[in-house]
Amino acid sequence: MTQTAAEFTPYGASHLGVVLVMLVGIAVLVVVGRRLRHRDPADRLGKLLALAILATTLPLQVLYFTPDYWNPQKTLPIQLCDLASLVSAYALWTHRWWAAGLTYYWGLFLTTQAIVTPDLDSGFPDPIFLLFWGMHIGTVWAASYLAWGRGVAPDWRAFRFAVAATAIWAVSVFCLNRALDTNYGFLNAKPSAASILDLLGPWPWYVLAEIAIIVAIWALATWPWVRGRSARTGPTRRTPRGPAARR
Question: Are 141 and 22 in contact (CB under 8 A)?
């Protein structure tokens, strides 16, 4: 079958091109974010990036509900990538610790999986192609900009919140999959094609293995930030007690 110009080719020129754009954008945003950290406390650049993310995420979700693209098996806006993009926009606008934490964990460790192995049929310059990559790359940019650019990095509180929020999402989507006979997140069954999940055993063991792997990676990705803060603040001084405390 002859491939049309509108079809997406994994690891083709357009795929490699958007990955290059993502990497260059990360480097630029981190450098600029550090320079503006004290000169722009209102983070106007972050707010512009938040609006840009919404300008791709919201039209994409609308397009997915049109007859040409509607598919209840894959276009409902309940994937973690969909939620991560909205949370990342909120995090950029407010710098709230929980939103920045979710953006860090979901953006850098889950959204990137969709970038490496995208579930995408439309190629450049189809609107779905442009909006899909805008949403996913924007989330990764937001996570990198907040953590390394603006210094809004995660701690153990954000780690615990992200684990709990992801668990709630997983349980909710599992129940929705059962009700609608769908398989979002591959929580109810493995994908029909061969995948890395085949190495993790049958259901439900591969789901439990995924949970353990994600929690371990997130913990490892949190530890350097916490350790760095402890090194900068130094050991906590003990409060004197007894007569010396009243001098």
Answer: yes
Query: Which tokens is 49 given?
Result: 């990036």
Residues 6+ apart with CB under 8 A from 180: 72
Please indicate, yes or no, if residue 201 is contained in any of the structural domains.
Answer: yes
Q: Which tokens belong to 148?
A: 């390394």
Look at residue 97 and tell me if it is in a domain.
yes
Q: Which residues pair with 122 in a beta bridge?
A: 7
Question: Per residue in 56-112, pLDDT tens?
Answer: 999 999 999 999 899 999 999 999 999 999 999 999 999 999 999 999 999 999 999
Distance in angstroms (rounded) separating the CA atoms of residues 6 and 18: 16
Identify the residue whose tokens are 């972050």.
46
C-beta atoms surrounding 70 within 10 Å: 12
- C-alpha 167/C-alpha 163 separation (Å) is 6
Per-position b or e across 32-60, b if 16+ CB within 10 A of its CB:
ebeebeeeeeebebbeebbebbbebbbbb
What is the CB neighbour count within 10 angstroms for residue 102?
A: 25
pTM metric for this prediction: 0.90
CA distance 54 to 89: 7
Domain of residue 92 covers 13-229
- Domain-embedded: residue 76: yes
Residue 242 is assigned to a structural domain of this protein? no
Q: Which residues pair with 7 in a beta bridge?
A: 122
**By the 8 A CB rule, do 26 and 140 touch?**
yes
